[in-house]
Amino acid sequence: MKPRSDTRSSTLGADPLGARNAGSPPVRTPAQARQLVRRTLAALGPLRPSQVEDLLLVTSELVTNAHRHGGGVTGFTIGIGRDRVTVSVSDASEKSPLYELREELRPGGFGWPIVLRLCREVTVDTGPDGKTIHAAVPFDR
Hints:
By secondary structure, the protein is α+β, with helices and mostly antiparallel strands. The protein has helices at 30-44, 49-70, 111-118, and strands at residues 8-11, 73-80, 84-91, 121-127, 130-138. The relative contact order is 0.20.
């Protein structure tokens, strides 16, 4: 997903309103990612709890998948738009996520379908250094 004029990007360690916070550590774990998302959303004012929970779940799933399938998180950003929050997670793998329908029950494999279900838009940018998944979750202010 390409940045749009109605989207302000909040990069790793940056305040959602544009002020830099150079002392923030990089996001590497799902807990660190959720903490950054919570702080960003708190600066936006009150949101419906279900919207916050959806965004936190999407964040956890993307960061967990980056660790499980992509060798770890290499980048994390949050973009704030008029009607959506976009979480972008990068990893070192060039492989796009797979959506597999399974007939038998076995553990794992549910995170990507959850992300696709909760998001308004999901895009995957791949390149020689890995991929970035951009997941836009709708919200109202």
